[in-house]
Amino acid sequence: MANLTQLNADLAMYRAARDAILKGAQSYSVAGRSLTRANLDDIETQIARIEARIARCTSTSGGLVKSPLLGG
After folding, report:
1. 42, 43, 45, 64: least CB-packed within 10 angstroms?
2. Any idea where the domains of the chain sit in the sequence?
3. Which residue, 29, 25, 45, is CA-closest to 37?
4. What's the confidence (pLDDT) of residue 49?
5. CA dist., res. 1 & res. 16, Å (int)
């Protein structure tokens, strides 16, 4: 499982990709070659998932899972 630092880095990259798409960089062509970035809906879904994971990690329990073996 990714740690909080990695989740925040991933979130920053997805947000940058979303911003690039929203600024018109969804796709382009140069010299007969083309590039199409990921679908905006897919990126928004991933952003929501990462934000939810971060919220779970930073909740009041500190992201710790109670263990029945330890009486938690």
Report:
1. 64
2. 4-59
3. 25
4. 97
5. 23
Q: Answer with the residue of higher pLDDT: 29 or 43.
A: 43
Burial class (CB in 10 A: 0-12, 13-18, 19+), 50: buried
Residue 41: both structure tokens together: 């809906």
Which amino acid, residue 67? S
Q: Considering only CA atoms, which of 9, 18, 10, 11 is closest in space to residue 41?
A: 18
Model pTM? Answer: 0.68
pLDDT of residue 27: 79
pLDDT (average), residues 36-51: 91
Query: Given the DSSP bridges, would you call strands 27-30 and 33-36 parallel, antiparallel or unpaired?
Result: antiparallel
> Residue 1's Cα: distance from chain center in Å?
14
